[in-house]
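Record 1 of the preview.
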Amino acid sequence: MQFAEWEPLYLAIISDFGFLQSGDEDAAILLRDLLSSRVPPLPAVKERISGHNVMVLGNAPSLGSELDSLDLKPREAVRIIAADGATAVLLSRGIVPDIVVTDLDGPFDAIRQANSRGAIVVVHAHGDNLDALRRYVPQLKHVVGTAQCRPPDGLCNFGGFTDGDRCVFLAKEFGAASIKLVGFDFEDESVTPRKKKKLGWAKKLIETALG
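->
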């Protein structure tokens, strides 16, 4: 997705939540600087997604039971993109995702472990996670940096707002043959009103991405 296509959605989101665009821009610059000496592994991301059947894992409470009903072997038959906390659920089943998409507010030990075992981590910068960026990004390797504002050189913006829908936009951007959602519950009544609003946006954005 080109930023010109994403920008109207982005502006609607920050208006809806009362976010400051300047905060997102500050975070994007920080992440760019943290990654300035690294080359983003975009060719490896493309290799893992392009032409493959991709399973995108959200971290809804139903994720564990949904995984129990799936056959993920052989792993070559499906590529897995995990949204943040879904990584811990996968590792508990002995499965390492191909890619983790995170804004670093989830179980970092699991994300770092998956990264050390070969997962590429797509780290997202926004106005609320500057401290997490400073603390955690230096501990990761094979990182792609993303922003939700206009990305500075060295960062990407594939579209998306929450970890889950950013996974879908990523899979779409790199030419997945198919995209299957697992562990998504847009109607979860157990969440806070703020989280419920985020789920509403995630649903809308995923529908936009999948057309």
